[in-house]
Structures are given as C-alpha cells and as structure tokens.
Amino acid sequence: MNDLRHLINITDLSVDEIDHMISVADDIIDHRETYQDICAHKKLATLFFEPSTRTRLSFTAAMMELGGNVLGFDQASSSSTSKGESVSDTIIMASCYADIIAMRHPKEGAPFVAAGRAMVPVINAGDGGHFHPTQTLTDLMTIHRKKGRMNDLTIGLCGDLKFGRTVHSLIEAMMRYDNIRFIMISPEELDLPGYMKEKLDAAGVDWKETGSLEDAIPQLDVLYMTRVQRERFFNEEDYIRLKDSFILRRRMLDTAKDDMIVMHPLPRVNEISTDVDDDPRAAYFYQALMGKYIRMALILFLLGIK
Amino acid sequence: MNIDGVTTGLVLDHIQAGKGWEIYNLLGLEKLDCTVAIIQRASSTKYGKKDIIKIDGSVDIDLDVLGYFDTKITVNMIKDNKLEKKVKLKLPEKLTGVIECRNPRCITSVEQDIVHQFWLADRENKKYRCIYCDSVYKEKK
Questions:
Q1: Residues 6 or more apart from A11 whose CB is under 8 A from it?
Q2: For residue A280, what are the domain limits?
Q3: A152 has a chain B CB within 8 A of its CB
C-alpha cells in the first residue's frame, strides 16, 4: 500500500517521470496495437462531481484503448453526494470497485482528501480553480510533439490567470525546465494569484505581466489561451465585464513567429476566433488528441504496468 | 500580591499584556486538575507590561499552538522548584487543528471531519497556507 502513487499536482511527478510518460505516449502513437489489451480486466472509475466533456471523454477513450473498462458518474446529482455522502466515503466505496480513479470536484483540495483515503491510485482531473495536472501532461506532450523541445521557450499565458487552473499547473511544470520565460497576459482582475508569483520568484524564473496581447505575440514560442469561466465567478456582472477581455484573431498572428503554436485547453467560447483554426500554428485540437495518449501513459504508470 | 512558586510545572512568561485569558483558553487549561494562576499586567522590563501563566503540575502543552499565537512568549519548565529548561518559541512549520481555512472554494468548507492543516509559507510575514487549497490564512480583523 505504501508504494501507491497518486497524481494530485503536476509536481507529484519528477521531470524524469514526465519525460518517461511522454516517451511511452510517443510509443503508443507509433505502436497502438501493442497496447490495445494491456489493461484488460482493469477498471477506471471516473468520478466527476462537476460537468466535463473533454476530460471525461479523454479518460474514457484512454482506458478503452488500453483494453480496460470504465465506470462512474458525470455529475454530483447522480452520485451519493446528493444524499450528503462525503468525498472520503465516496472514494472508499469507489476503491472497492475500480483499479484506478479519475476524479473531478468543484472544491479545491478534494482529490488530496480522496488520495488520503483511497486504496487505489487517484488522478486529479481538476479541483475547482486549483490544479488540473492531466491537462498539463497534455500540454507538455503537445509542446514536446510540436516544438521538439521542452526548454528555451517563451510562453505567453493569456486570459483568466487567476482562476485558470490549467495555467497554474502548466507554470509549475514548465518552470522546472531550463530557460523558460513566461509572459502573463490578462486583465488586472484576473492576474496570476500571489502564491504562483511567489513560486516563480522563488525559483528565479523570468516572467513579466502585460495587458496587451498584440505586444506579447511577436516574442512567443507558445501562446496559451484560456477561457474566462463563468462558473468561477460569484458575481455575474464581473463575468460579463471580463469575459471578452482578450480575443485572438487571425490577423494578430501576422506578427507571430512562423513556428509559434497556439494552445487552448478547450472548450473555447470566443477567445480564439474560428478563422485561426485553419492556421498551421493552431494546435488546440491536436492538443485534445494528445490528451488521450498521455492519459494512456499515465494510467499505465500509476497501475505499474510496463 | 503573592503567587506561590511552581514546584513542578510550567511558567509561561512574557505573554502580551491582556492576552493571558486567550492563551488559557487556547491551551484548554481549564481542563487541568492542578493549580493554574493567571497574572495580568505584571511589570516587565522588556515590554512594560505582561501577563504570566503559572501551572503547578506536570502538563504537556502544545508548543506549536503557543508559537503560532506569539513567538515572544517564553516557556519555563520547572522541576523540583528549579528552572530545568527555558524554551524560546518559533513559528511551527505545520499547524494542525488550530486555525480554519476561510476559502469558500476549499474542500474543508463542505467536507466534515477534515482536520484543517496549514504549512508555513513565509516565516518573516507569518504567512500560512492551507494544505488542501493553498490559500493564505487571513486572521479576522
């Protein structure tokens, strides 16, 4: 039981472990038939206490392509939580039925609590505005495949940097590689939380903030766009005021490097204009595909297979 | 005013004047079955005025709680009428079950029976972060 591994925050994984998973995902892409039955008779429980399409489908597809089975729920109202069951009890119950758990919960720290009670590996599939490590693995896999390197990169993070959990996890992961520079592009009300700035400063990472997407674009190797999420606001007025703060349009890419990539965790609302989709630098749908392969590698890693 | 000395027990010295009762309650000293004295607004060469708590009995108090409350407090451990050890307090690296997270998005806001835990993120500014949600603990004003 002591060697049970969970993934709550991306920093639970060493750089070597991430690099290993990326190489396994590369191998899965090249030799899919080798992996198609590798998780036969294994079960993944997807416990989604808040709605999700992409992440849940990605986990489901990943387990199915490994030959395993999937069970679970996709909203709190269809679980015992609606009857008042605690996260701890739900997790103990799920541990009895599944070999591995992927969990999304609106409250920050819920997967950390779950990991303390689970008898099988727990994967944090997003906890409120806090962490979303498998999105980060997806992002790292995309950067690896598209840029061919994980160092010497200037990364622009644009949109909701305050509640955007994907951004926080990506920063934590990328700041461990060499010569990474961040440009934070957001309205003042949605800028990076203090604790993330502290982490960047403590690690001696080069970063700056700007309110202009146009000014930042020419400097970037990676532009990471995010959505302003309605569900993170207590106040509808604030949401409406800030939701269209930064919109990427095709003409804005004229000043971008030819090999810059545009990423987005999806779903987008209108922060990337659809005319960007046909630009070869648009990498966000490719990113969704990479999410499946890296989650396959993660499941294998946490189950101790291969 | 005379207060008997402690034979075997503790003297909590240099408590900020007026905070003696808070410390008494914080440490749950009302549960003790020994003599406890709170001396309020005693003269102090260091701070002008101070409170002192004397506990005449073998007790095990949580120095982490005391350190979080005020690092200026000195803990004198007395045995057989002699000063055995003087402990200088410091901010604890971890705080368990002492303060509660106020972030409404934190799992601790809904899940019962979770022990609130914090880690010391910034010793200089006495900044503690919740181990579940990472938010900084803010004291009530």
A1: A172, A173
A2: 134-288
A3: no
